[in-house]
Design a protein that fits this description.
314 residues; mainly alpha; Cytochrome Bc1 Complex, Chain D, domain 2; 13 helices; binds heme C
């Protein structure tokens, strides 16, 4: 009996030591993982910056760790701010600070989209949950909604803010024109002027010679025919070339060759790609009349839109 107990004790003691060592090892690994994260260095730098620009108290209050903007009703879990720590500090930090600590650019319309209500990915794309640069910016393999970076925009002959307008128009689709959206505004003018609705249905209106375009942005690029498309096999390229010269991309098509200028084809492509099935709740869809009023040159007209400014575009 006693022998048995003794042997149990020795056994337990052995286990206890083993478990303690394992636990210590796990703690060490956790510390190491935390320390070698990509965001670790930015989070050590950020409070120093705040302190340097006179925000000593805020610097002391800074809590390191993964930070996120969580907005369940629009499916946003954006950890971008784990690295982009200066985003809300434009009144304190100069814009010359290197990324990712640079404060977010501000202007009249940025202030209409509070970060706490919009997060980052609705405008930028990318994988909000990721905490590495590669994961967040490019997304993992097969990620369909890449961040609209400078590099990606350049590949498509655009500036980054021009490319982002595609995402602005997810929500601003029904504005006739919107401040800050030059590419999309141009595209909306062209779409009307060239009478695309003669052959295409958009939101229940238009002719049926060509396919419906209401949710053109949801089209699966893998189903496109790239046999006559030069360059990268992207939906963007397919559309630009098809809009410029439909007969080259879809031989025997009934769609005219519009011979748009490159910047016009690119703008129209952004517009077409912005037409997606949306899951945003109604409070995320802006009132087109407010945008119409904001587009009026006279400062008084921001209050009362004229009837002629009532939008009919898509
Ligand atoms: C692990 C840190 C980290 C995370 C997480 C992160 N970023 Fe960045 N970001 C950086 C760094 C570093 C740069 C500057 C160098 C570069 O462009 O890679 C940058 C640059 C950018 C730029 C400028 C892009 C360009 O093409 O010049 C944008 C826009 C941006 N980030 C948006 C985002 C968004 C949106 C998210 C979340 C989906 C995000 N970032 C998540 C570290 C991060
Ligand atoms: C309402 C849309 C919108 C939201 C929301 C938004 N951004 Fe931006 N962001 C933009 C636009 C547009 C630009 C380009 C501005 C320009 O070029 O003047 C930009 C620029 C940037 C840049 C690069 C600045 C540069 O020119 O190199 C970074 C980094 C960035 N945003 C990160 C973020 C992060 C992080 C969040 C979330 C906290 C966020 N943004 C939320 C629209 C948005
Ligand atoms: C997720 C939806 C969403 C996205 C994406 C979005 N907006 Fe908005 N935007 C709104 C809402 C909602 C309002 C109205 C906000 C308010 O009045 O409080 C608004 C307001 C505005 C206004 C003021 C005039 C008006 O129509 O109310 C402008 C200008 C504007 N946005 C431009 C942009 C630009 C430029 C982008 C892209 C960089 C963008 N928006 C991206 C939803 C969005
Ligand atoms: C005279 C009729 C006609 C007009 C006008 C016309 N299209 Fe088309 N369009 C077609 C036909 C037919 C197709 C299908 C064959 C093809 O891919 O070209 C098509 C295909 C398309 C597609 C590919 C759609 C898909 O899902 O396969 C897009 C995008 C498109 N048109 C955009 C436009 C735009 C933008 C305009 C105005 C600038 C326009 N079309 C004007 C007849 C027309």
């Amino acid at each position: 009996m006693a022998d048995k107990n003794e042997s149990f004790e020795t056994k337990d003691f052995g286990w206890l030591v083993a478990m303690s060592l394992l636990f210590l090892a796990l703690v060490a690994v956790c510390f190491w993982l935390e320390f070698r994260t990509e965001w670790g260095p930015y989070q050590r730098q950020f409070p120093q910056l705040l302190g340097h620009y006179g925000k000593g108290q805020e610097a002391r209050d800074f809590q390191p760790g993964i930070q996120q903007i969580w907005i369940p009703k629009i499916g946003v879990t954006d950890r971008c701010i784990t690295c982009h720590l200066g985003y809300e500090w434009s009144s304190v930090l100069p814009a010359t600070i290197a990324e990712p600590l640079t404060p977010h650019p501000t202007n009249d319309w940025m202030t209409k989209h509070e970060f706490a209500k919009f997060g980052c990915t609705p405008c930028h794309g990318g994988d909000g949950a990721a905490t590495t640069v590669a994961g967040a910016h490019q997304g993992g393999r097969g990620w369909e909604d890449p961040m609209l970076s400078n590099a990606l925009a350049q590949q498509n002959g655009l500036a980054m803010n021009g490319m982002i307008e595609m995402r602005c128009n997810f929500c601003h689709r029904h504005d006739a024109a919107t401040p800050g959206m030059d590419e999309i505004n141009l595209a909306k003018v062209l779409f009307k002027k060239k009478k695309c609705l003669l052959c295409h249905v958009v939101e229940g209106r238009g002719g049926a010679t060509g396919p419906e375009l209401t949710y053109e942005g949801d089209r699966n690029p893998e189903l496109l025919n790239f046999a006559h498309v030069t360059g990268d096999h992207t939906m963007f390229n397919w559309n630009v070339q098809h809009l410029t010269k439909a007969s080259a991309v879809s031989p025997k098509t009934a769609m005219p060759d519009f011979n748009f200028k490159p910047e016009e084809s690119r703008a129209l492509t952004l517009l077409l790609m912005s037409w997606r099935r949306l899951t945003y709740p109604p409070e995320y869809i802006p009132d087109p009349e407010v945008a119409a009023a904001a587009m009026q040159p006279s400062p008084t007209s921001t209050v009362t839109p004229t009837p002629s400014a009532t939008p009919v575009a898509h």
